[in-house]
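hey so u asked for the seq, here:
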Amino acid sequence: MTQEKDKSKRSEGYDDFLAHVSQFTSRDEEKAFMESIDQEPPQEDLTVNVAERVKRAREQRGLSLLDISRRTGIEVSLLSEIEQGQSAPPLGTIIKLAKALEMKMGYFISGDELRPFTIVRRGDRKVVSRYDSKRDKHYGYGYESLAAYKKDRHMEPFLVTLQPATTEGERSSHDGQEFIFVLSGRMEVRLGEEIHVLEPGDAIYYDSTVPHLVKCHGQETTRILAVLYAEK
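ran it, structure tokens below
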């Protein structure tokens, strides 16, 4: 009986939607309505949470910033900015930090609240944007975890939004593999000595040990589904 009521509610909702659409008097009005219901929900910036977790994990192990710098090759000044929430680390850096601290990278995204399975609703996704508050720079992307709180996960799926960057960016390399599927816009990937441009529907799978850089190609925002795999 409950299933029938739910089905009826869904049907009523869809009927209301169709009724609204039928009232459009122009294509511009229809376009405006479709854009209004397709807006992304407000997102919470997790930079501070990531910063707190990195610092806590380091201090619990009795390690200094210099110790972590020696293990990862990341400059002490940048590590300090990350821990102070002044710079959101890219995913490659999080992987390096996780390995140096002998933890899974998922901890820095999700924290301790882990479950046997997880469902991430559209309005519940948390975004981490790359920026440097001291230098007033935006590095061209923000990423949202699509598997937050899944216990013992071996893959890290993200919805990534690439924006035209104000800085060129550098290739990174780390343990693991990456799979990327382009949802919209155009993506440029620099992999070793090669440069490729991917369009919606294109995909790429590569070893993360190869120096790589993924960026927006042109002035159009690009959305990609990225799945990272990194062994502890």
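Residues 47-229 form a domain with the Jelly Rolls fold (CATH 2.60.120.10). Residues 2-21 form the longest helix (20 residues).
lmk if thats what u needed
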